[in-house]
């Protein structure tokens, strides 16, 4: 057998001896010698593999680089193995069904990605380019193939694929996360917005919440809920400031009021509890407080008895069955949460058939009606007086229209809550 | 929409006077809070907030006035408002703070009242 380095041109089918050799050139003999030397050396030790095969695939010539990559000795391949022996099963099929026919047809094929099989069974990803060498008579004699090690490139491609998969995964994760956050925000926002109000036997209830802007929701609040027996509790109020912090105060206020009312339904006790909670929570920060009315409703033979405690809130408007209006004032009630202790005052009102009661926050009475003019409490009272006797839903519908007409003039949240006792059948009392 | 607001301070024998002028609302309240925190105030002094030039005061402004009263409480000092505009006086009554805050028609009135109540002005407290 031939030694690995002993046969440069003579191996294989004998048609390999006509490799072009560099012409000896001019001036510098040392340089020429170097080039002369390098022709063989370049072939053998080029940074790529060279492989010459006969038309039937028999390996005629192979360079040292490729032998090293595959782990074969020259004698093991030249003259006795075919190119297909160096291919993986898949590669072999590809060679026979695609590459060989294309070579026969076009005389060349380039940039083919293949996997070569090494002596020890290892796989070497390569990029191969093959050209058919023809003899003087035009017949195909030999296939010359250049083989580039594509391990790095394969790794690069796999890295690209992996990176793309990672990016897709990350995008999906981000989408899922965004959906989750959006859902959370919506849920939280809904928990801040006033709820659907329950039905109270013998009473009509209507409410409206008008956020001044979509992203600054939550400054005003109201709720109505059952207490023990056939009594009901309700509240309406307005927290200081705007934005997320105000919304957090609103949330704390609403849940404190509901819990306090269950614990002790006395209106003053409820507001005392709220004052303590808010003051403890916000004393050291920028002071946060709210104005609020809290009321308890107890059915009577003719309507409802209302006990109302006010914490610095705008007076409610009472519209009697005959259309007469008055303000339910409880002077002395302090805003809630700003000081360690606060005084609250209650007032009793009998609600009779045909009576309506309106609670509102100052978004309504501070709405700009045009330029810098603001809609005042007096104007509101005149507006309501002009309506005559109304029930809760008519009143709220009318005021909703009024707020809509103000448009951008309403620069604060506005909450409206109306209670009315249905008129009795027959002549009015 | 203009939201001009300014604070000014000086100290009298009674203590620091903070003057708020312009519109005190959510956009300008931070200026008021900063002034309240920075004003030098000692035990026994009077922190007087002069509102003569205040054109507008919303709930954020009320919050600033409350913060000023807390500042005084924390320093064992007294607190009063001078020249409360009519619109604000109405609100203070509604929210029950008219009985919490001491008010004077003018800063001079506040000063006079303090001197009368403290015959030896700010010499003894250190």
List keywords for this structure.
heterodimer; A: 429 residues; alpha+beta; Beta-Lactamase; Phosphatase 2c, domain 1; 9 helices; 17 strands; rod-shaped; B: alpha/beta; Transcription Regulator spoIIAA; five-stranded mixed β-sheet; 4 helices; Anti-sigma factor antagonist (chain B); Anti-sigma_ant (chain B); STAS_dom (chain B); STAS_dom_sf (chain B)
Walk me through the structure.
The complex is a heterodimer of chains A (429) and B (126). Chain A has nine helices and 17 strands. By secondary structure, chain A is of the alpha+beta class. Chain A has three domains: 121 residues, PAS domain (Beta-Lactamase, 2-Layer Sandwich); 35 residues; 228 residues, PPM-type phosphatase domain (Phosphatase 2c, domain 1), CATH 3.60.40. Chain A has a five-stranded antiparallel β-sheet with strand order 2-1-5-4-3, with helices on both faces. A five-stranded antiparallel β-sheet of chain A has the order 6-17-14-11-12, covered by helices on one side. Chain B has 126 residues and is an alpha/beta fold. Chain B has a single domain, classed as STAS domain (Transcription Regulator spoIIAA, 2-Layer Sandwich). Helix content of chain B is 37%, strand content 29%. Chain B is built from four helices and five strands, in the order ββαβαβαβα. In chain B, α1 runs parallel beside α2. The longest helix of chain B is centred in the middle third of the chain and has 16 residues. Chains A and B meet through loops of A and α2 of B.
